[in-house]
Design brief:
This protein has 97 residues and is mostly beta strands. It contains two helices and five strands. It comes from Picrophilus torridus (strain ATCC 700027 / DSM 9790 / JCM 10055 / NBRC 100828 / KAW 2/3).
Length: 97
Amino acid sequence: MTKMSKGPRSGSRRVMTKSVKNKGMPKVNEMMKTFEVGDRAAIVINSAVPDGMPHHDFQGITGVITGMQGSCYILSFKVGNVEKKVIAAPVHLRKVQ
């Protein structure tokens, strides 16, 4: 019997799948979204774009934009008492009011 894969996308079948209507590449507007420091954003992974994709454990988490790193944004949030920072491309982020 073979060993189970332990890659960065393992165990993410439900998170990474899209519905039939949403399949394919995202629109250009979605790729070029802009955020300001202090904006609230949620991580919504778009599996069609592997660049700047955060780990699937962070799917659905909401945090505050604290800065930029290249063309990606740094999103900070707390898990328990631990402050976490995730670097994600704007395609994988959605503004929250």
